[in-house]
Write a structure and sequence with these properties.
Immunoglobulin-like; about 40% helix; alpha+beta; 2 domains; 4-stranded antiparallel beta sheet; about 475 residues; 16 strands
C-alpha cells in the first residue's frame, strides 16, 4: 500500500515538474508592459520621441521622427495597424489581448492581487476571486480605505503616463509646476485618474463583461481553430443535466457519466475574475487570462492527470479533429494586410518633408509699370507661408524654374537675401517675381505661365528642399501698352 502511494506521489511530482503557471507569466508580462509604457515617453533621440501626438505643439513623433500636423495622414495607418493587429490576434488567440495586455486587466490585477491580497491581506487567497472581502469588520474597512489610497497614487501615475504620449513629460512637469496656468491639463489628469479609481475599485470586471464592446466583436472573429481556455467535456464529463441543473458534487457527475474525471472542486470557477464557469463552454465574458487552466492543472496534476481545462481550440478539444491550424487563410490574410500597411507607413514616413511651404498668389493678378528708360516691368506677388519642421534654425531661399523659352526672363525682385526660420515657427514672406521683357505678345488674353518654386535650406540643399507649382501671369497686349 505504501509503495503504491510512493508511486502516485512520484508521478504527480513528475507531472508538475518545471510547470510555470500562466498567472506567474502574466505577472512578468504585466511588469514588462508597465515598465515599457512608463519609460517609453522619456526616450528621445535628438529631441524626438518614440511616439508622441502633441496637441500642444501640433506635432507627431513616430519612431523618433518628427512630423507636422499637416503630415497627419500617417495616423490612419497607425490606427489601422492597431485595430487590425488586435483583430488578427483575436482570430489566433481569442481575447488574449484582454487577459494579457489590456490596461483594465493590468490595473485590476495590481489592485486586487497586489494591493488587496499581497500587501493588505484583505483577500485571503489570490485563487478566490468570487467572494469579496467581509466589509462588516472595522479592520477590513480600514484596509479598504488604505487600498483605495494606494491605488489613487498609482491611478495618478497611470493618468500622467497616458498624458505623456500627448504632452511630452519634460513639458508636463513644467506645466504642473504652474497648475493654475494649465487648468485644462490639470482637469484632464484628474478626470482620467478619477475614472481609473472608479473603474478599478467599483466597476471591476463588469467593465469587461458589459461595457467593453470588444467582447461582442470577438464572437464574429472566432473560428474552430481559435486558441482559448477550453474545458474538455469528453474527459471531464457534462456538469449540467438535461434541465440545466448544475452538478455540484463529484458523485453527481459520475452518476451521469461514470468515466468523467471532473472532481467538482470548482477551482476553475472560484479563480475566474469575470465570475463564469468555464465548463459551460465559450462565453463572451471570458478574457483568456488562463487562470482556470492553472487551477485545473494544479488539481488534476496532483492526481497525475492532464488538466481538463486547456489553452487549445474547439477543433482539437471539442471536435477532436486533429491539431490546431495556426496558419489558416484567415490568419494569413490578416498578416498580409498588416505587412502591407506597415510597408506603406514605412514608405510614407520616409517621405517626410523637412519644411512645409504653401504658396498663394495675391488677389491682384499682376502689376505693370514703366521704369527708367521706358522699360515696362510686369510683377507678380505671392505669399509664402513656410514652416521649419526641423529641430534647429535654417536659412531658406528659393529658385524659380520656368518652362523652356522663358529662361532668364522671370526673375526675383524680393526678397533678395535668404531668410531665417526657427524650429517649428511659421514664416510669412511676400515674394515678388518680375520680368522687364515682352515675353508674350497676345492681344486677346492674359497668358498664364506655369512655374515651379524650389525652396531649400541654404545649409542642406540636398535634403531640405520642396517644390511647389504656381503660375506667373503676363497681361494681354492692350493692358501691357496702357501702362
Amino acid at each position: 500500500m505504501s509503495e503504491a502511494v510512493t508511486v502516485e506521489k512520484k508521478s504527480t511530482k513528475d507531472y508538475l515538474k518545471g510547470w510555470i503557471p500562466f498567472r506567474i507569466m502574466r505577472y512578468w508580462f504585466f511588469g514588462l508592459v508597465s515598465a515599457f509604457s512608463l519609460i517609453a515617453p522619456w526616450i528621445t533621440i535628438e529631441g524626438n520621441h518614440l511616439f508622441l501626438l502633441s496637441f500642444d505643439k501640433l506635432k507627431l513623433h513616430l519612431a523618433f521622427v518628427q512630423f507636422d500636423m499637416q503630415e497627419m495622414y500617417l495616423m490612419p495607418f497607425i490606427l489601422m495597424i492597431l485595430f487590425i493587429g488586435i483583430f488578427g490576434l483575436t482570430v489566433v488567440g481569442g481575447r488574449i489581448f484582454c487577459g494579457w495586455m489590456c490596461p483594465q486587466t493590468i490595473f485590476r490585477v495590481l489592485y486586487r492581487d497586489l494591493i488587496e491580497t499581497k500587501i493588505l491581506k484583505l483577500r485571503k487567497r489570490i485563487k478566490n476571486k468570487q467572494n469579496d472581502p467581509d466589509m462588516s469588520k472595522i479592520e477590513n474597512q480600514v484596509k479598504k480605505v488604505i487600498g483605495i489610497l494606494l491605488w489613487t497614487v498609482l491611478a495618478f501615475i497611470a493618468a500622467a503616463d497616458f498624458l505623456w504620449y500627448f504632452v511630452p513629460p519634460e513639458d508636463f512637469i513644467a506645466y504642473m509646476a504652474h497648475p493654475m496656468d494649465h487648468l485644462i491639463l490639470v482637469g484632464t489628469l484628474i478626470t482620467i485618474a478619477a475614472f481609473l479609481i472608479v473603474d478599478v475599485v467599483m466597476i471591476k470586471e463588469t467593465f469587461c463583461v458589459y461595457i467593453c464592446p470588444y467582447s461582442r466583436i470577438q464572437s464574429v472573429l472566432y473560428d474552430d481553430d481559435t486558441v482559448m481556455a477550453i474545458y474538455d467535456p469528453h474527459r471531464g464529463g457534462k456538469i449540467y443535466d438535461e434541465h440545466t441543473k448544475l452538478f455540484t458534487k463529484e458523485k453527481e457527475i459520475r452518476a451521469a457519466e461514470p468515466a468523467s474525471e471532473c472532481t467538482a472542486c470548482e477551482s476553475c470557477v472560484t479563480v475566474c475574475p469575470t465570475h463564469i464557469d468555464i465548463r459551460q463552454g465559450l462565453q463572451l465574458e471570458c478574457i483568456n487570462c488562463l487562470e482556470c487552466v492553472d487551477a485545473c492543472t494544479t488539481v488534476m496534476g496532483k492526481l497525475g492527470k492532464e488538466s481538463l481545462v486547456r489553452w487549445s481550440s474547439d477543433k482539437e478539444v471539442i471536435h477532436q479533429e486533429g491539431k490546431t491550424n495556426y496558419f489558416r487563410p484567415k490568419v494569413i490574410g490578416y498578416a498580409v494586410i498588416l505587412v502591407v500597411i506597415m510597408v506603406i507607413l514605412g514608405f510614407m514616413s520616409t517621405t517626410k518633408e523637412h519644411m512645409l511651404l504653401n504658396i498663394n498668389k495675391e488677389s491682384r493678378l499682376y502689376n505693370v509699370k514703366t521704369i527708367e528708360n521706358g522699360v515696362k516691368r510686369v510683377a507678380n506677388a505671392y505669399v509664402f507661408l513656410l514652416q521649419n519642421t526641423e529641430n534647429k534654425d535654417h536659412q531658406f531661399y528659393f529658385d524659380v524654374i520656368v518652362p523652356a523659352g522663358y529662361e532668364g526672363k522671370i526673375k526675383t525682385l524680393k526678397p533678395t537675401e535668404p531668410f531665417n526660420a526657427n524650429p517649428g515657427a511659421k514664416k510669412k514672406k511676400i515674394v515678388v517675381l518680375y520680368t522687364d521683357e515682352l515675353i508674350v505678345d497676345d492681344a486677346t488674353k492674359d497668358t498664364i505661365i506655369p512655374i515651379t518654386i524650389r525652396a531649400y535650406a541654404m545649409d542642406d540643399k540636398e535634403h531640405i528642399v520642396v517644390d511647389r507649382h504656381s503660375t506667373f501671369i503676363f497681361p494681354r497686349k492692350d493692358v501691357y501698352d496702357a501702362n
